[in-house]
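Notes, p. 3: input format for complexes.
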Amino acid sequence: MSNKKFNAIVTAVGMYVPDKILDNKYFEQIVETSDEWILTRTGIRERRILENGATSDLATLAAQDLIEKHNINKDEIDALIIATVTPDMFFPATATLVQYKLGLPNVWGFDLSAACSGFLFALQTGASLIESGRYKKVLVIGADKMSSIVDYTDRNTCILFGDAGSAFLLEPTEDYNLGLKNSILRIDGSGKDYLNMLGGGSLNPSTHETVDKRWHYIYQDGKAVFKVAVKGMADVSVEVMEMSGLKSEDVAYLVPHQANMRIIDATAERMGVSKDKVMINIDKYGNTTAATIPSCITEYYRAGKLKKGDNLILAAFGAGYTWGASHLVWAID
Ligand code: UT7
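Output follows (333 residues plus oxa(dethia)-CoA):
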């Protein structure tokens, strides 16, 4: 028996991507690569880059889009969670900066760090605030300015990432058939050596040496991460489908983290979900870390491809390692 007072439903969505586009041809000029390699190995055609501003701006603009399109009263938002690995600063939290930029008078909040799984972790955290009955309007945002930590001389990583923000509003319902049903979320720190940014924290405070060693940029052992990502995402996705009693034909869409088209295809295949039921925007934006999943859902919703009652399986894998899958039943008509 669940001791939830309510279920948390998504009642509004928003997103922001910057105007500046870097296409694959651009990378042919700065590192040894080709449009063909990038497209066939990753599925990425282009990505967006924020030229002026920070992650709080991506998050604020995504939230403003949500507030305007859905006519939300800002005074009623009572909690704000920002999933990001590119906070404006170590402290204060990006959530406080977004509160200030948006002018939210009655809110508390915090940043959540879980890399590419950040949005799933934030969605579950926000839903728990709603389910307890203590909060009525929780804004959950995934935003990352990945260009601020990408080494544009490293062909292994620079082609992969882009900047974006996307926001969901969670509210309570007593209809237990709608909203966030089940989540399976996991962390395993044995993955720390394969995907990280070594410099700037308390382990390796910033020095000339950390800069010289390029430790303020993303490092990734792509092959190692690839293998565990497919298995990690597929295993928990299948498990969450079983928890919810769903067969693959009951799933309207798989919403995978957008890191690599080949990881997405392999995950869908293991779940028995056909390609037409997989949300994709990696071709346009690359890997935007915490923003991939909500921005996919926002775009598909706005294109009229979602209806109330649709079963969505959200799945992610990221640095840590962190990973998880959630069953979300769409609640907007
Ligand atoms: O979002 C968080 C989780 N992250 C992920 O899920 C990412 C997981 N990993 C991946 O997506 C893939 O491993 C990558 C896209 C990063 C790399 O693809 P890959 O097929 O695993 O390539 P690889 O790393 O095995 O490299 C194969 C070759 C290497 O050359 P050699 O050693 O065979 O001569 C690389 O140096 O491809 C080379 N290579 C490139 N060549 C052209 C690596 N990057 C590039 C590039 N252009 N941009």
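The chain has ten helices and 13 strands.
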